[in-house]
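Record 1 of the preview.
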Amino acid sequence: DLTTVDNDELEKEVVNFYNNFKKNLKANNLNKIEEMIYLREKEIAQSNFYSKEKLKKLSKEFNNYKDIIDILPIENYQLVLSGNGKLAKLISKNYLNERINSSLITIQNLDYNGKPRKAYVFHGLTLHKPKGS
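->
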């Protein structure tokens, strides 16, 4: 239960994860990014019974990480807990929309449909801290 963890320490851990993810995006290190989010993506796919077509589309979207032009600074955020205190994420205070609120924002050459255009992509990173870690 993350509500019992020191809030400042938890925030440091979450910010470190986001910054590490950002660093790997900037370096175009897709293998490391995949390693960081593989388990999460696998669990989402399994729990939602994704079809083969949906999995192919997600794989294609993952390859769009190669088309990043810029990454906005992670700033003006707040740490939010959800899932009965089991999940943590950083949301932007600049974009307080339920669907578009991540504090990790990239600018890419392709949108989610693969169309060539300048697109702002909000990376919704929700983290879980396993017991004892």
